[in-house]
Amino acid sequence: MNKERLELYTDYLLSTFGYATATGLSEMLNGQVSHDQITRFLSDEEYNSKDLWQEVKATVRKVERDDAVLIFDDTVQEKPYTDENEVMCWHYDHSKGKVVQGFNLLNCVYHVGDISIPVAFELIKKPLEYSDLKTHKRKRASLVTKNELMRSMLDVCMKNKLKFRFVLFDIWFSSKENMGHIKATLQKDFVCALKANRLAAVSAEDYQNNRFTSIEDLPWQEETLFTGWLKDVPFPVLIVRQVFTNQDGSTGNLYLACSDTTVTRKFILTTHQKRWPIEVFHKSLKRNAALGKAPVRRVVT
Predict the structure, then answer these.
(1) How far is Cα of residue 245 from the mean position of the Cα atoms in its chain?
(2) Which among 16, 68, 87, 119 has the fewest CB atoms less than 10 Å away?
(3) How far is CA 23 from CA 38, 43, 82, in A?
(4) Residue 2, Ramachandran bin (φ over 0: left; ψ between -120 and 50: alpha; else beta)
(5) 194 has which bridge partners?
């Protein structure tokens, strides 16, 4: 990796207010670096999660602790006017509740104390093209799911000997496979959000007899903490509900599961709040680092 070019380009991304172009950077430097040099830097090599880890490893080692958390989430950067390819294509944006054209980035942030450091990422690629049988529209698909990518990223974090206690993730990553991988395979714990219709049994007898209830239909009280079994998850978890007020004055319910059955309800809620730094990270990428303002066309660029 060309460290000098990297520092120069990232400083430019943080300082520009318009489109982030190689020509714009060259003009800002009064031609000391040509736009061709910048273009070659961006397209000569495909940087990946390993390169990111090499950049942040020394910083992480200085601050890491056993009580740290790993946070997983993805973000979609909309780019409706860019030519479609395996990266720049249609993705479902959970924040907007619809499919948009752009690129989808899955990130892992290491959070300890008041420090947050991105330690791994995957750019979602959809190389498979097919025709939808119902609509006859051309669509794209990935070779691996985002949940599979998350588990691979977790394995890399373990291989890198990162110190952490919990893995935090939202509804979209709360699959039984992810839960089992974290608890059984990696011997770590998690706190995650659950859909209201997720099935659970709150007694060993109900679990053994395959009697499950939607978690929203459980007999909730204000401070209730259930020890239960989620359907198809072979170990007990703590299930809590948090009632929150929306901006319009309406109320909503947030359901959480924690694989460490020795902790308190307050601890689970406090730990889940540590997910917020990845939202700040995604917002900063878009607002401060010109994530969607580079008019590039090649996938590697």
Answers:
(1) 25
(2) 16
(3) 9, 15, 19
(4) beta
(5) 255
Class of residue 110 by CB neighbours under 10 A (exposed 0-12, middle 13-18, buried 19+): buried
Query: What is the DSSP pairing of strand 138-141 with strand 166-169?
Result: unpaired
pTM of the model: 0.93
CA neighbor of 164 nearest in space, from 231, 232, 209, 113: 113
- Give the residue from 118, 119, 179 showing the smallest Cα distance to 147: 179
240 close to 268: Cβ distance less than 8 angstroms = yes
Contact 105, 289 (CB under 8 A): no
- Tokens at residue 171, please? 């509804």
- Indicate the burial class of 98 (C-beta count within 10 angstroms; 0-12, 13-18, 19 or more): exposed
Dist CA 189 CA 191 (whole Å): 7
The domain limits of the chain are 1-45, 46-287
Ranges in the chain, pLDDT < 70: 1
Beta strand pairing call for 138-141 and 128-131: antiparallel
Pick the CATH number of 46-287 from 3.90.350.10, 1.10.260.40, 2.40.50.140, 3.40.50.720: 3.90.350.10
Instruction: Provide the 10 A C-beta neighbour count for residue 124.
Output: 19
Place of tokens 């669509």: 139
222-266 pLDDT per residue, tens: 889 999 999 999 999 999 999 988 777 788 899 999 999 999 999
Query: Tokens standing for 57?
Result: 């490893």
